[in-house]
Amino acid sequence: MDRISGLSDELLAKILSFVPTKVAVSTSILSKRWEFLWMWASKFELEKNLFGSEIAIKDFINKNLPLLKAPVIESFCIECYSSFQPEDINRWVAITVSRFIRELDLDCKWFSFSEPAILLPSSLYTCESLVTLKLNGKKIIVDVPRTVSFPSLKNLLLGSVTYRDKDCLRLLLSYCPVLEDLVIHRESSFDNAQPIVVISPSLLRLTLPIEDDGINCPGEYVLVTPSLKYFKVEDHNGRFNYLIAHMPEVEEADINVDEYLERIFESITSVKRLSLCVMYNIQDGYLYRDGIFFSQLDHLKLCISFDYWSKLLFRLLQDSPKLRVLSLTVDIEGRFKKYEPINWNNDQISVPSCLLESLETFEFDGYMGKQEERDFVSFIIKNACHLKSSSITPCTIAEDYSSTNSSDD
Questions:
Q1: Chain-centre distance of CA 79, in angstroms?
Q2: Which residues, at least 6 apart from 11, have a Cβ–Cβ distance to it below 8 Å?
Q3: Closest by alpha carbon to 172, among 130, 233, 207, 231?
Q4: What is the pTM of this model?
């Protein structure tokens, strides 16, 4: 008897849960013992590239989902297509909820605007076993009923969904007492969520990707997350206002914005690792208000993509006394038209204390040799008293860039 045949059915079912669903199903032809063993598996991943067609996925689910024998479904991940009927998707979700689903990943991004909306069963909103919920697609309607309970939900991803009304998101989050990781991805200002209100005492990680829909429709983000450890915002819309309560526990932030840098800075002064990409020009010397101080900042990564970037960077160095690592990356698609040369060697310029006391690593990736870059690098090399390592990597297309943009210097 081979080693696998000697294993218990329970252990074999667990093993089948870690292989692709189609592979697990294919084991049914091995022997009579294996014929229905895969039905005890607790994890299912249903994608077209695994099953070959949309119809094959739909037929498989309709035929087998009601017959699954596992008492608890650990995860159910499915790509839904326009050939699927909303009532079928509703029924599938309801079945997984009845099996104490722990992770539900519903990807409906392939639905077109002409397709009917997808309403999820009300039982989903009282699923006490659910730990991870991922909903993707404009046709998914988040319609929070009067009775809501997510006592176990820790991870929530809402990708370009449509909310029934402006209060749905706030109401949904208010019934997630142990939520730790939240992603709200928006592609359109017309998702009915105005403003976006995130109030969560338990939240540890918040990610806000906001795409530019090309429509001038301003909105607002209200964030009250006192326990947050990680904050990421990627706002290419530039028309959203931010009202953010102070985040005293934030350790890492990844900020990529077109506007409102100051309002975000005000909330993350405790940050230790900051990745920053600013997509607008810093004009007239205004950067952010006095009094914003990054007393714990250890690692700063700046994407250079805007005019007057060295002014912003110099100010950040002044306000970050414990900085150890400085990493610069040039965005070759950025347009650099303006630079007011600064006499960096002027004795009247106060050298930031982090250069004199703490900076150990300096990295510059995509260096083009422009005047602003040369001036700043010289200033760093001259004044960084405790520098242990430094690297400057030239941009591989700097020569081509320089020839096409020589008028900008």
A1: 20
A2: none
A3: 130
A4: 0.87
With 0-12 CB in 10 A as exposed, 13-18 as middle and 19+ as buried, what is 364?
buried
- To which residue do tokens 């404009």 refer? 138
Helix 86-98, helix 54-64: angle, nearest 10: 40
Span 303-352, pLDDT tens digits: 988 777 888 899 999 999 999 999 999 886 655 566 666 666 666 578 99
Could you tell me how far CA 337 lies from the centroid of its own chain?
32
Rounded CA-CA distance 205/213 in Å is 25
Would you give the distance in Å from CA 172 to the centre of its chain?
19
Alpha helices in 223-370 (DSSP H): 261-267, 309-318, 353-357
Q: Is the peptide bond before 352 cis (omega within 30 degrees of 0)?
A: no
Q: How big is the CA angle at 161 (ends 245 and 163), to the nearest 5 degrees?
A: 70
| Cβ–Cβ < 8 Å for 193, 168 | yes
d(CA 92, CA 263): 43
CA atoms within 13 A on the CB side of 28: 12
Let me know if 405 is exposed, middle or buried by CB neighbors in 10 A (0-12, 13-18, 19+).
middle
